[in-house]
Q: What sequence folds into this?
């Protein structure tokens, strides 16, 4: 069963093959008959179908704001393309030969599936059947040896043993992180161990607590290659990364707060923190602890870094929202805060930063240059962090949108920026 769930369908041969099939079906549909009437009918269907697709996309993205901002280029191309193909298939059904009707009926789900997988693949976060269905097939995390504190700075006192693995390992935390303080029903966390953590006598390493976007789930796989690249440049040293669930379900949003939607804030600030201190070979120094995240998780990271600077001395916020529930602020105001605007304003990260003082916190912000919906939010948070006294860096990354590219490049930028602070580089 896992072999099927682990099949990569949003990239590689499966997606290429599906695209070839979709193109072949378009050709078969267009070649129905060589008459002017059919050519005009097909042209009208394609144009009308594409127009309906663009209209639906505009309403969902711009009017309903269902995705909290603009979508990527692949979505803008594939939705009208699939709609045009489906319209062509529909007008092919009347008065067609039986085999052509079969082709048209098959084409409709193939066009929809191909468009969906191309869009998912363009974002790059979900690749397998299991990813798309939110069925986790990740193996359990490896066991490690007790860690030892080495003299500071770590990069200078650490000597990588000859048998250190070239890459890190990652997996599901088992037994799961408890929720005694919060009662929050979180999904299993995942942990990444860099090469230096996998040797016989590992050093105490920095910790990165990371959160993915919404919809989404904890996934160390998405971060592993970036972390391996960082470790390869630093003698196997990198943070241990604990990827945790701030949502509770793929499409839920408890706002990273303690509300009627669940005690997500207490889970992250108490349950997760206590578990990490007791179970991971990480430094106890707050300047070696990072809270990070992407999109919804990036907003949560900025919030936790603002509220709990005594725990998290560093922030990496990648394409974050400005504050909790920003995309659905009216609904959140009514359903969560009972219409109390002052109560809602009190938990917005820029307001928390404006009221605080952070002389020994570092904050790194990154956002894609092709992600216009999140650039203003990222800049607002970075300015608020800088004004509050945090040492702040921000980068708008060219050639990246709101997909896996901004996660990988934003995380790489954040880690390299913080490496001296973490004791991992000169």
A:
């Amino acid at each position: 069963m896992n072999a099927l769930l682990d099949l990569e369908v949003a990239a590689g041969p499966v997606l290429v093959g599906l695209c070839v099939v979709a193109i072949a079906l378009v050709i078969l549909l267009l070649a129905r008959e060589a008459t002017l009437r059919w050519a005009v009918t097909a042209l009208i269907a394609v144009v009308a179908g594409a127009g309906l697709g663009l209209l639906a996309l505009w309403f969902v993205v711009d009017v309903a704001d269902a995705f909290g901002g603009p979508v990527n280029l692949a979505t803008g191309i594939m939705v009208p393309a699939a709609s045009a193909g489906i319209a062509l298939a529909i007008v092919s059904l009347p008065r067609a030969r039986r085999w052509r009707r079969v082709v048209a009926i098959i084409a409709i789900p193939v066009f929809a599936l191909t468009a969906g997988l191309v869009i998912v693949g363009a974002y790059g976060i979900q690749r397998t059947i299991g990813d798309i269905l939110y069925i986790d097939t990740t193996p359990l995390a490896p066991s490690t040896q007790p860690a030892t504190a080495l003299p500071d700075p770590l990069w200078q006192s650490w000597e990588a043993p000859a048998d250190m693995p070239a890459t890190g390992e990652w997996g599901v935390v088992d037994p799961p992180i408890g929720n005694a303080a919060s009662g929050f029903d979180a999904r299993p966390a995942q942990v990444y161990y860099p090469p230096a953590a996998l040797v016989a006598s590992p050093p105490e390493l920095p910790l990165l607590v990371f959160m993915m976007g919404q919809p989404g789930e904890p996934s160390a796989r998405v971060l592993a290659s970036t972390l391996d690249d960082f470790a390869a440049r630093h003698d196997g040293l990198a943070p241990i990364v604990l990827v945790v669930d701030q949502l509770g379900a793929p499409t839920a949003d408890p706002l990273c707060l303690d509300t009627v939607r669940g005690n997500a804030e207490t889970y992250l600030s108490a349950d997760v923190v206590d578990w990490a201190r007791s179970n991971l070979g990480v430094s106890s120094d707050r300047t070696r602890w990072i809270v990070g995240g992407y999109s919804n998780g990036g907003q949560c990271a900025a919030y936790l870094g603002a509220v709990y600077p005594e725990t998290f001395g560093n922030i990496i916020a990648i394409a974050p929202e400005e504050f909790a529930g920003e995309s659905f602020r009216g609904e959140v105001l009514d359903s969560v805060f009972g219409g109390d605007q002052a109560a809602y304003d009190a938990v917005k990260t820029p307001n928390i930063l404006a009221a605080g003082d952070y002389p020994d916190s570092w904050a790194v912000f990154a956002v894609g240059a092709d992600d216009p919906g999140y650039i203003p939010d990222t800049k607002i948070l970075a300015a608020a962090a800088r004004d509050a006294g945090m040492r702040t860096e921000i980068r708008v990354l060219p050639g990246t949108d709101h997909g896996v590219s901004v996660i990988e490049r934003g995380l790489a930028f954040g880690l390299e920026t913080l490496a001296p602070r973490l004791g991992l580089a000169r």
User: Anything to note?
Assistant: The mean pLDDT is 94. The chain has two domains: 2-123, 141-422. The radius of gyration is 24 Å.
